[in-house]
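G., before I forget:
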Amino acid sequence: MNAMAKVVEAAWTDVGAVTDVPLRGARRVPTPHGDIAVFRTGDGRVFALKDACPHKGGPLSQGIVHGHAVACPLHNWSIELATGEPLGADRGKGCAPVVPLEVRDGRIFLGRL
Amino acid sequence: MTEKLVVVGNGMAGCRAVEEILKRDPGRYAVTIFGAEPRVNYDRIMLSPVLAGEKTFDQIVINDSAWYDRNVAALHTGRTVRRIDLAAKLVEAEGGLKVPYDKLILATGSDPVRLPLPGADLAGVVTFRDLDDVNAMVAAADAGGRAVVIGGGLLGLEAAYGLVRRGMQATVVHLMDVLMERQLDDSASFLLRGALADRGVETVLGAQSEAILGEDGRVTGLKLKDGRVLPCDILVMAVGIRPATGVAQASGLTCNRGVVVDDQMRTSDPSVFAIGECAEHRGIAYGLVAPIWDMCRTLADVLTGDEAAAYAGSILQTRLKVSGVDVFSAGKFAGGPGCEDLVFRDAGRCVYKRVVVEDGKIAGAVLFGDVADGGWYFDLMRRGEDIAPMRETLVFGQAITEALRGVDPRSAVAAMPDQQEVCGCNGVCKGAITGAITSQSLSTLEAVRAVTKASASCGSCTPLVEQLLQLTLGDGFQAQTGPKPVCSCTGHGHDEVRRRILAESLKSIPAVMQALEWTTPDGCSSCRPALNYYLLCAWPGDYRDDKQSRFINERAHANIQKDGTFSVVPRMWGGVTSADELRAIADVVDKFKIPTVKVTGGQRIDLLGVRKDDLPAVWSDLNAAGMVSGAAYAKGLRTVKTCVGSDWCRFGTQDSTGLGIRLEKFMWGAWTPAKVKLGVSGCPRNCAEATCKDIGVVCVESGYEIVIGGAAGLHVRQCDPLTKVATEQEAIWTICAVTQLYRERGWYLERIYKWMTRVGLDGIRAEIEDPERRRALYDRFAYSQRFAQIDPWAERVAGRHAEEFNPLSRRMELT
């Protein structure tokens, strides 16, 4: 391994196994800049967003995960997990920042928020 | 180069004008908006439902802050514009702010008229114009008492109705002998007075106000010219509006009643335009929303280069927003020389329709009680259609008229131009709706509402939106004649889903979704919690609860708050507590630094602001003192409110506290379609307020009166008597039986009062009063309770679902 590869490696943090996140559920990862929400959908895919709804900052990690979206627990906005954007009539009203995420050997690696 | 556009007025007209301009030419202008109210733009028409508690402010916001961020270069709210320097093309605002413009739009709206009566400056005298007025009225209504509203027009009546809904007694004082005389004739006004009286709004007609009376600077009543005094705690003036022309006048623009504009909405200065309620066009200053939208479209055309665009004035239609009172009016509703009237009356249904015909065309209409055809008449009138061929059937409405003439009723809808507005509340045109139906494969009303917001506010355009669905999809449209689907993931109604869960032994959410052909892979946040409940109720002991299909409160067994913290409410059986319990609660509050401790309306204590990570430890300490979850978050049994009954009270007839405790100990943990609150009062004085609970007991000397279907929230409803029993044991059997019937038959999120209204009280009573059926219901309830009465807090203290409360990882906490 050369030095360059090590630098790239350090930008990612191993936050746990994919199976640590419940199917159709989410877990939180606290950071100094607020929580990150890590989601696992019914088809086993994982996504990560800043844990704040673009509407009123509701904790998306506490919502109901359906399809590739999550319903915010505060006012039921539906947020698309891949883009962080609201779906339906609220589309275009801001978005929850997407957190870089990689899955390697069944483990979840998060980039910086 | 971008031109500078400044809009003075951040209301419906100003923002709509900006939207219309952006739609036509998004890059042309850099937009600056000035607003006097310190908030984003909201739907002023919907303030009445907000006052009545039928909508929240959030629901009537039209443009939220994200919209401003995207579309507006600068927004100055709460900053008043002083004058416009027309020569230098500069807007001068409060605090010395000067903003240059190339084009300027005045959309300053109007001010409510304040009658110059003696006492008009007393505290408690308000107008009805903006959110601050609504908040002032809501605050006054919270204290109860009486309200007097001066003005029997649209706004005055809606204000009075809203105040009654908020618990006040309201009287409307009107100068004329006809209510809403600018929209209604005598007959409709008469019917309207009756309908308002049924809803608790009294009306005094032909009454001239003389003075507002007060004491210590606060209003106490209204004195009329004939000497009568109407006492009141709040007085609302709703006597009309006056165009706000202050800025225009100070700047030297030509004004009459409003700011005078030509057909291009241009004022006396060629770079300054005026729209909305502040403008006066061909001698008319409009006070309704439809003309404003028309003006905004013309102005946007003009400002994006179409100098030929012209506004030719608007024909008006009006609807009253008082729930259950349907009134429609348009055009020359009162007739006149050369006019003929076609009238239809149905005394039994309180229906009155009057269509005014002039020169073979509809000139106006007023409808009361059945307004379904209002839009049709309005359309015929606007198009100047010759009505001679349908004269005989015209008053019976569109369906009959067109059926008899062999015309497909959809043809009128098909003929509508794409840019014609369908939903006035949200400004959605026909083309936007049909476009969304086609491009996004929408097939239900709900889906159209979600995507376009059409018919999502007041709902009066719902039939039209349904016709558009029908027209666009043809046979693919499933008319919503059958039961309402559970959600947009399925076409099946709640009853059908429940029936098939039992009939086909479906025992998991995926099994139900497969068998009933759900259209989404794993449902949505509406259907999953419903299915989870239906399965839990159908297969007690057998079905494994799906945690991910529960709303966060039922997953975390606490109530989520706006900042993401939770509130915790331990059970206090029958509202009785002890020094030990209180001491334990006090210790928990200190130990976890819980910021707020509040006594609830259900005779318990609420600990607010608990961090999610702390929940298991908080519960552990409460468990140790013998307390369990109060399920204050559950679609399930909440509280049993009691009075002290025969133990202490000199009027008590039975042991109401004891009965309440026994009920709560037997029924806690039960999941139900929606929350269930009980109350037990020891005598008809009803100190436990049992007659507005989901199920209540009123003890009397000879036994127990059981009442059902109360509500005291968004809707306030008194219970209906269900039955009367002689012994306490029978009371418990009956209450458990009716709860089980509701568990088995109610739709998810349907409170008992709504269920009861839907299925009929008689049918419920028949089940409960039949001893065998009551017994069977009771037994099923008791069986289900064997699996339900496990304290969720204790389970989680012992480690169940620990992942719910712990972060996935703390490795990024310090980076």
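The first strand of chain B starts at residue 3 and ends at 8. The domain at 421-476 of chain B is CATH 1.10.10.1100 (Arc Repressor Mutant, subunit A).

More on Monday.
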